[in-house]
Amino acid sequence: MKTPKLAYVVEDDPITSSITKLILRKSLACEKVQTYANGQRAFDHLSAALHNGADLPDLIVLDLNMPLMDGWEFLDAFSGLPLPTSVCVFILTSSIHPDDITKAAHYKEVHGYFSKPLDDHNVERMQRLFQTCGE
What residues bear 4-aspartylphosphate in this entry (predicted)? Predict the structure, then answer.
């Protein structure tokens, strides 16, 4: 079973961020989880890691509604990065608007769209979807 070595949780709500971090460690057996309160911080760190040859995430769990740089802006910037390997992106949001779900499907990096809060069914779905990321 493939497991993420490094995951980013990009989420402005500290409680959701902490719970997601615990779920990634426990249910997806993720070795290391880094949390970012907005897309700008995550993007800056990712860009620096890419530039410096540091570890890149295997998985990014991304909220859509955040200050400074929201999830859509992050995805637009992220899509332009010359990443050497694919990174699996899961959207975790409170939005159940059909337009958001449709828009997310247009990003090749997005492999799953999940509604908050995560339940057991969606965690199992995350596990299955992660197995197919990068194929």
Answer: 63
Query: Could you tell me if 23 and 118 are in contact, meaning their C-beta atoms sit under 8 angstroms apart?
Result: yes
- Residue listed under structure tokens 């490094």: 6
Reduced to 3 states (helix: H, G, I; strand: E, B; else coil), residue 66 is coil
Q: What DSSP element (H or E) covers 89? A: strand 88-93
The residues pairing with 102 across neighbouring beta strands, listed in sequence order, are none
Q: Cα(129)–Cα(59) distance, rounded to whole angstroms? A: 11
Q: Which two tokens stand for residue 18?
A: 């902490």
Q: Mind listing the pLDDT tens digit of every residue in the chain (135 residues)?
A: 788 899 999 999 999 999 999 999 999 999 999 999 999 999 999 999 999 989 999 999 999 999 889 999 999 999 999 998 889 999 999 988 889 999 999 999 999 999 998 888 999 999 999 998 876
Sheet holding 6-10, edge to edge: 32-36, 6-10, 59-62, 88-93, 110-115
Count of C-beta atoms within a 10 Å radius of residue 97: 11
